[in-house]
Structures are given as C-alpha cells and as structure tokens.
Known about the structure:
- The protein is of the alpha+beta class.
- The protein is built from 5 helices and 13 strands.
- The longest helix is centred in the first third of the chain and has 14 residues.
- The radius of gyration is 19 Å and the shape is globular.
Amino acid sequence: MTPKPNPTPDAATAARHVADLVALMQLAPTGEDRYRGQSENIGTPAVFGGQVLAQSLVAASLTVPADRAVHSMHAYFLLPGQHAPIDYTVHRARDGRSFTTRHVIARQEGREIFEMAASFQTRDEGIDHQDAMPAAPDPLAQPSELERRIALGERVPAAYRFRGLISPGLEVRVVDAPDLLSPQPSPPRSLIWMRAIAPLPDDPLVHRALLAYASDNGLLRAAMNPHGLTFFSNKLRVASLDHAMWFHRDFRMDQWLLYVIDSPSAGGARGLCRGSIFTQDGRLVASTAQEGMIRVKED
Length: 299
C-alpha cells in the first residue's frame, strides 16, 4: 500500500522539507557560466516545469551583480525533462547602466528542453500603483491540496494518488476547489493560497526562485474550469508551452501569498491563463502568464 504523506508535519519535518527545496535551487558550477541542477520527482511523468524555471532563474542570477534583481522572465518549454540532472548554460546578452539581460538554455543528454530570457534591474524609484487584491477567505479555511488528495483515498488508482503534488516544502490551498474526480463547469478563475511551510533564509533570490517554482503549479487550472475538466480527467493531455513572469515588489515566500488566476481564452488546443500574486495584506508582488496545450482525446 502506498504510504500516506503527512499533511501536518511537525516543525522538524517541515524544516527538513523546506531545506530540501532550498537545496534544489542550489546549482553546481561546471564551467564558465555553466551550472548543473538536480531534479526532484514530485509524481509527474516529466520533471516539474516550475523546477526548471526556478533553476534557470538561479543560473542567470549567478552571473548578475547582487544589486540587480530580476524584474521579468520569459520562457519556453521545448521538450519534457527527465527526472535527472539538468545542465544550464547562461549567455550574457547585455550589461547596461540600469538593466542586465541574460539568456539561459537548459539541456539534458544534449537535448535543449527549455530556454529563457531574463532581465535584471538596479533598484530605482518611479511611479507606483497596483490593482486591488480581490476578497478571499482565510487560507486556513481551505483544506490543503495534500489533504484533498488523501481524502480521495481508494477512489484514485494508487499510481495516481499523489501524482502532481507540489514539493512537500510548499503548502497550497485552493479556494472553492473543484471535485478532482467529478468536476462541474465553473468560471475560468482560480484563487490559490501558497507558502513555504517553514522559515526560509533571508536571501531574496531564494524567495524569487521559489515563487517562480510555485507559479507553475495550477496555473492552467482556470482554463479547464468552464469545461468541467481537472488534471485527473480521463483522456486529457496538458503541457505548459511557455511561462512569463514579472516581479513588482519585495515579498517572502514563507508568508501567505494569494495567486489570483483567470483564463481569458482557450482555443486551438491551447489555453491562456494569467495570474496576479498578492501578499496577505494586499500588495501585488508578481504577475504571470502561461499558455498551455490542452487536448481532450475523442472516444
């Protein structure tokens, strides 16, 4: 019988899970502007795209002065990655007075599986405004995704029981989540609370990398809602095609963040989703956009 993960780990276990996730973001240098990252198998057939996105951001950041923080990144998922080490090559495209640009290619066994461009900026002053955060219930009023999977029990085949769960170092709680096995059509929107389950180091790069990691989790869900589909739906094939992200303000990943997602369009076997990420006190700290392949096989 597959052992059940613990949805409420003690402090020592939670700290270990978070330390493992932070270690996953640490890359080993293998040459000039070349790095290697390890992979974590969270139960998906291919390596989790958020992991490659986050490690690419770390690789690019290692070639940029510490006083320049990432403000945007644009990536394409080219091929499914394996649960194996990944090699990252950084190209120093531009070093300007205020902005720095880097290109990153991720490879496995000589195959290019991912590419990304990222832009970094010195800390500057300027105009400032933001959208308001929508009303949302307290995060602890929702069951965690892990609790929801465990509650399904034997209704889900053992091979899929915990498939697609994000790293145990992160906690995810979906507001008004659809029934994973019997979903009903609903508006193309989703609200997700997320945070690390134990304190993180003060290094801002760790927090940005982990937010990039978490931002790939559940983003395409909003495009499935109107069609009564979930990631567990039979005959459904889903894959991320690209991912864009903008960082607006400082934040901590070990405090609750609200991921507000909508899907303005789906067609041509693709769905587009957009996300806004807020702190619990309402500051807009990041935005995302992703297009994914969504195919439903005919009977």
